[in-house]
Design the sequence.
């Protein structure tokens, strides 16, 4: 993991095998497919459901601060706990959870490099048992919204070019050929992308085994599309989880300043009346 | 307990590239299908054998992928 700007935010599967049940460490699985945890998980890990525990279930928003505090407290996590996140799809929603933990100021959050599939493919122990957790009190920081982009900021960035827009969806979504990933429900009225955005699919940041590519390869990947960190960067996708993954790469592995995640993403922009849209590659 | 006989294969369903991942945990076989690009899970199944789990997941994935519409980009 050398060469990354912040290598401390990544741990290997070996590290989790050796330290996942240490005092002061809490391993959390967060999957796209919320049924995966029950099939078998890292021994000692707890599971969070992104669609009920990591969002506001009434208003479209991230999890509110009071519910975030209860979730972490009920998970036995205190401010000095090392939280290690992992999940399916090479950590899509684990990165989404990472982003929210950083919004609420948790000091020590890490991703297990390679995620759930690497753990399984390596034939490591899995457990069907959820651990017993002693709840604690948790007090979150006020939200750090510098790492979250909202519609008005995206509109301004698109119009002025003051920030680089990175669309991390698939080329077919970016071009407007399809309105959602193949096999998933369409959640927008128009296809295409935010004018001026560059298409750098999230998966290009990963190696075959699901781990992140080297710092040099990542730098080249983004630089080839003109993304060099010389101005603020806004990442977006369809609902904000894939772009959390790319946000993590840009901010923590490459160390670029001013990187934010537009979680409104295409589900917001592609439904806006009057919003400009570009189509094609 | 471990995930055993872990296998990843790619095939095309309803005109889309799909990745089928299957493995056994305990006595249960698990199979999942994702759409390769972008990699989203679209179907899952479990059964007593690999063949049955994969057949079920392929059937479910095919139905969902068949409903995906390609649109003109003009």
Sequence:
């Amino acid at each position: 993991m050398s060469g990354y700007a912040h290598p401390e935010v990544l741990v290997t599967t070996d590290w989790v095998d050796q330290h996942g049940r240490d005092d002061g460490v809490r391993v959390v699985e967060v999957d796209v497919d919320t049924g995966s945890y029950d099939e078998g998980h890292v021994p000692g890990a707890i599971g969070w459901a992104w669609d009920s525990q990591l969002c506001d279930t009434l208003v479209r928003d991230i999890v509110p601060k009071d519910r975030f505090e209860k979730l972490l407290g009920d998970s036995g996590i205190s401010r000095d706990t090392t939280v290690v996140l992992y999940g399916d799809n090479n950590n899509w929603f684990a990165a989404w959870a990472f982003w929210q933990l950083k919004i609420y100021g948790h000091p020590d959050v890490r991703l297990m490099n390679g995620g759930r599939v690497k753990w399984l493919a390596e034939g490591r122990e899995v457990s069907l048992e959820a651990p017993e957790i002693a709840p604690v009190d948790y007090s979150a920081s006020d939200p750090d919204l510098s790492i979250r982009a909202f519609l008005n900021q995206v509109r301004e960035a698109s119009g002025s070019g003051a920030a680089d827009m990175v669309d991390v969806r698939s080329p077919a979504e970016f071009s407007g050929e399809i309105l959602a990933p193949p096999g998933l429900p369409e959640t927008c009225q128009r296809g295409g992308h935010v004018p001026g955005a560059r298409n750098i699919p999230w998966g290009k940041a990963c190696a075959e085994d699901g781990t992140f590519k080297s710092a040099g390869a990542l730098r080249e990947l983004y630089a080839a599309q003109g993304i060099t960190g010389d101005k603020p960067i806004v990442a977006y996708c369809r609902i904000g989880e894939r772009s959390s993954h790319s946000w993590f790469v840009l901010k923590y592995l490459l160390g670029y300043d001013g990187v934010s995640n537009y979680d409104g993403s295409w589900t917001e922009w592609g439904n806006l009346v009057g919003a400009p849209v570009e189509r094609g590659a | 307990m471990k995930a055993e006989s872990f296998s990843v294969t790619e095939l095309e369903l309803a005109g889309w590239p799909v990745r089928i991942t299957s493995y056994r945990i305990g006595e249960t076989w698990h199979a999942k299908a994702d759409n390769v690009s972008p990699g989203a899970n679209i179907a899952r199944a479990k059964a007593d054998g690999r063949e049955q789990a994969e057949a079920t997941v392929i059937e479910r994935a095919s139905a969902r992928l068949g409903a995906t519409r390609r649109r003109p980009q003009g």
